[in-house]
Amino acid sequence: MSKSKETALKAKGKPAALGPDLDVGRFTRDAKTWGYCPVSSLPEDIARRSLAVGVRADEGERAGTYFQIDHSTVFQKIQKKFEGKTEIMSTKDALEKYDWMEDYWWKVVSADADKYTALAELEWDRGYFIRALEGQKITLPLQACLFISKDNLDQNVHNVIIAEPNSEIQIITGCTVHPNVQRGLHVGISEFFIKEWAKLTFTMIHNWAQNFDVRPRTGALVEDNATFVTNYVCLNPVKSLQMYPVAYCKGENSRARFTSILYGAGDSYLDVGSKTVLQGTGSRAEVIARAIALDRARIYSRGLLVGEKEDTKAHLECRGLLLSDDAFIHAIPELTAKVQGTELSHEAAVGKIAEEQIQYLMARGFSELEAQSLIVRGFMDVGILGLPKALETEIKRIVDTTAAAAI
Amino acid sequence: MARRRSPSALKIRNLSVEIAGKKVLDGVDLEVLRGEIHVLFGPNGSGKTSLMMSILGFPSYRILSGEILLNGTDITNMSINERVKLGIGIAFQSSPTIRGVKLGDVLRHLAGSKIDGAKMAGAVNLDAEFLNRDLNVGFSGGELRRSEVLQVLVQRPSFAIFDEPDSGVDVENLEVVGGAINNLLKKRSGLLITHQGYILRYVEADKAHVMLNGRIVCSGIPTKILSQIMKRGYKWCEKCPKARRPH
Ligand SMILES: Nc1ncnc2c1ncn2[C@@H]1O[C@H](COP(=O)(O)OP(=O)(O)OP(=O)(O)O)[C@@H](O)[C@H]1O
Ligand SMILES: [Mg+2]
């Protein structure tokens, strides 16, 4: 038995530090095998859902695509123009192809962190491998979709994303379910490696179902002068979602930036945070969180900045908008300074829409409802994600649809 | 010269208003005839902004008595946006920041159609870049003033209110803003609040009023009243024998 299997076995019953504890045994492992299918020929209902999380079936404006349904990889391809510059395939294929994959497997996330990491090791269902080759600037984003088509299934993926030295890459990933899926579990391990002078921008959009549970586990290693930009957008009700991704700014002058937009509706339980550890001289980090709670949603919005080296600096900003008296938002910003010469700061603000903002807009001729909707849409402004214009416009369309439905 | 009878644009009768349990307006009477521009003077805290907010219908300004008529229509109990639809526009003295809502979004809505935003912004000497800025976030004092004025310019209301459009605006911008306000008000009615009266170099006002402790105590020719205030301060108004005594 492999070392990581052994490690995982020990953590099989270990509850996570945060979030409701799940009985992972109550989900089914029994998924049919999906054969190869070009994304352009995906069934209409699947294509529509994946488009709503930013994954385009037409492959237009994308350098490469990975598509997984349940436990099967149905499509993986780099556009001709980008061959030899970037790679995309299942992690299963990557492990077979490259023996050095060992160096990236369970390296920034540990297999025995909790029962979910253990599950991803013991019942592993692929995931994607994306890599930008050294010195390559990939001018179009790559996309990956993790799709669940069967009710009550668990899908436990393990992704590895590598930006080789001096490369630049944009990735958009969407995770979603078929409209018929009510319950289920998605566990996603993601390990990021951003090497010297590389820049990786990663945008993840989630769109689940009201009785669905989600446990992503993410770690990133940012080396000298490298930049890791990560965006997370969660738009629809989910039963419980708990994640606390961490970036280790290990390199000198490394940079990390987390931005999240959480839209909690229905009976959603969202416990989402971002953590950065400043370990390299001159490293910088920024965490920006926006949380909107409607209906009976419960949102924990966390952030942790740890300064371990001198001449480091990080800032955390958390804003929450409460749109219902039955919902709540709990913002938990934390700062840990371990050396002098680290400068950590945070600001947090949680509350309902300010009456004076609504009245101001009414004085500009908006009705009360229009004013509210404008403010909510503004609160979810995707401009804060810092994406290239085309991608920003696509995601803005997705988010605006949700915001419009909010009021 | 006999004044031609013209219907009033704004008529306020015996208006008393309180905010947070404090009486801020106490029996205000004011009539602005169609086509007229009036100026309101008064020391800090005398109730000038409160009067504007009450005309707009801000709910925290609770009306104790009196009525407000716009072009003969009783608007006393209307919501803010209903009043705006009837033709009131305002450049606020202070405005909240609204993240993610762009100045351009508001201008487009006010115009009700496609507009050349950059050109409009130029009318108050604001860079087109401001159209994409979050509303009032990080605007300097003078930029805020100009953004407020810009919104009224785009709206083109029949009755325009400017609450201290000239305070904190530098000389060159004052000329631009003053010219723009004057242009807008040529065929409209309006109410201006100013402390130093700078804006009156560009806008010809028909009548001025002095407000003290929530009352209008004196009305007359704008230039005369301004020069008296400048010379002797509001002390003069308080002692003025012609000032209306409290009821
Ligand atoms: N929310 C509030 N709570 C309590 N008092 C208030 C509130 N808003 C205004 N006031 C008070 O009402 C009075 C009138 O204020 P207003 O803003 O109308 O004055 P103003 O004449 O416009 O003054 P300025 O020249 O300084 O702009 C002031 O004493 C002010 O402190
Ligand atoms: Mg005032």
Provide a compact summary of the structure.
The complex is a heterodimer of chains A (407) and B (247). With 407 residues, chain A is of the alpha/beta class.
Q: Which key features would you list for this structure?
A:
heterodimer; A: 407 residues; alpha/beta; 2 domains; ten-stranded mixed sheet; 20 strands; 42% strand; B: 247 residues; six-stranded mixed sheet; four-stranded antiparallel sheet; 7 helices; disordered N terminus; binds magnesium ion
Each distinct ligand: adenosine-5'-triphosphate, magnesium ion
The number of domains of chain A is: 2
Number of helices of chain B: 7
In total, the number of strands of chain A is 20
- Class derived from helix and strand content of chain B: alpha/beta
What's the topology here?
The complex is a heterodimer of chains A (407) and B (247).
Chain A: H1 3-10, H2 44-51, E1 64-69, E2 72-78, E3 86-90, H3 91-97, H4 115-122, E4 128-132, E5 142-148, E6 153-163, E7 168-177, E8 183-194, E9 199-207, E10 211-222, E11 227-234, E12 240-243, E13 246-249, E14 255-264, E15 269-278, E16 284-293, E17 298-307, E18 312-322, E19 328-337, E20 342-351, H5 355-362, H6 368-379, H7 389-406
Parallel strand pairs in A: 1-5, 4-6, 5-7, 6-8, 7-9, 8-10, 9-11, 10-12, 10-13, 11-14, 12-15, 13-15, 14-16, 15-17, 16-18, 17-19, 18-20
Antiparallel strand pairs in A: 1-2, 3-4
Chain B: E1 8-19, E2 22-33, E3 37-41, H1 48-56, E4 62-70, E5 73-74, H2 80-85, E6 88-91, E7 98-102, H3 103-111, H4 117-123, E8 134-135, H5 141-155, E9 159-163, H6 171-185, E10 189-193, E11 207-212, E12 215-220, H7 222-239
Parallel strand pairs in B: 3-10, 3-11, 6-9, 9-10
Antiparallel strand pairs in B: 1-2, 1-4, 4-5, 7-8, 11-12
The complex binds adenosine-5'-triphosphate (ATP) and magnesium ion (MG).
